[in-house]
Amino acid sequence: MASPERFSAVELKQFSTQLLQKAGLPLEPAASVAGTLVDGDLLGHDTHGLALLAPYVKEIEKGAMTTSGEPEVVSDRPAALVWDGRRLPGPWLVHKGIDALIPRARELGTASLAIHHSHHIACLAAYLLRATEEGFLMVLSSSDPAVHSVAPFGGTRAVFTPNPIAAGIPTSGTPFLVDISASITTNGMSNRLHKAGKQFEEEWLLDAQGNPSRDPAVFAADPPGTILPLGGLSAGHKGFGLAVLIEALTGGLSGFGRADPPAGWGATVFMSLYDPAAFGGEAAFKRQMDHIAEACRTNPPRPGVEKVRMPGDRGMARRAQQLEQGVALHPTIAPTLREAAQQYGLSFPAALAD
């Protein structure tokens, strides 16, 4: 199999910013969205990085993503905020949210923001380093009230999205970057395999009658199938519980969710920052996290496993490698971006030489 094409991260960000500007976004949100998508690929989340750029451009073209203005402040207390995102670009809103929370969390120890009517926010892990580099523990979650692809445990009709939740946890060394979903797989991966005519290696889906399946084509059936909650057929009650928690944090706390008419592809978002200095102290926090890291990384691996990694270890190693050697784009991504570049009279970056 041929090696994937690699591209300069700097050139990808420049191109993506220019493409979003040509489509109609001002420079600041365009740069924010572009940087976030490239960061997703740098960390290895290639279904939620630049794979989303062409779909975002289409959303701008049809007026489904707002291109101007600011979020509306619905509620503002010292440690709790709610915004109406007005369907502005999701990555830009999340970064603006982090900007708003940092000084509040520094002063109060913790601060939280819930956003409704955000557009899609891409890869959750892409935001975590901003928080950990400032010394904060960050929790970030999202749901899309307009999309239904995951059934409750024991059911056959979709109620939820995969409902991701992420946490950035500072340590004395490499931070922990947790990015998981309440479902056993994602819509993005299901769509990618379906387009490629492939199946999952395990039965992570149900058809509409509730029979387990490996085939993502069940989503194209009428009625459609669903994704299983995290834990699958035997322990999916755990993912179901996590999905309900994320709905409470996002739709519940923001005041808009699945009980309301759908507003199109987008997100309800919840984020919190915690300053360890306001709790048991920064040094004590890192001592505890460093101990966990040591206990896990030195843990005797089971057969077939080279070593135990902490959440984020592989992503951070991949990020460092790709910043030096170029971003290895999934083979499906570059062709769609070259097509978008041609449409707007831009040149897509040349692949780096091997």
Protein architecture, described:
It is built from 10 helices and 12 strands. It has 354 residues and is an alpha+beta fold. It folds into 2 domains: 256 residues, Ribosomal Protein S8, Chain: A, domain 1 (2-Layer Sandwich); 43 residues, Wheat Germ Agglutinin (Isolectin 2), domain 1 (2-Layer Sandwich). The two termini are 15 Å apart.
CATH architecture annotation name of the largest domain: 2-Layer Sandwich
What is the average of the pLDDT values? 96
Kindly identify the CATH topology of the largest domain: Ribosomal Protein S8, Chain: A, domain 1
- Cα separation of the termini: 15 Å
Number of helices: 10
Order of helices and strands: EHHHEEHEHEEEHEEEHEHHEH
Going across the major beta sheet, what is the strand order?
2-3-4-11-5-6-7
* Unreliable runs: none
**Total beta strands:** 12
Overall 3D shape: globular
Q: DSSP strand (E) fraction?
A: 15-25%
Can you identify the CATH superfamily of the largest domain?
A: Malate/L-lactate/L-sulpholactate dehydrogenase, NADPH binding domain
| Name of the level-1 CATH class of the largest domain | Alpha Beta
- Most strands sheet: 7 strands, mixed
Helix/sheet category: alpha+beta
Measured as a percent range, the helix fraction is 25-40%
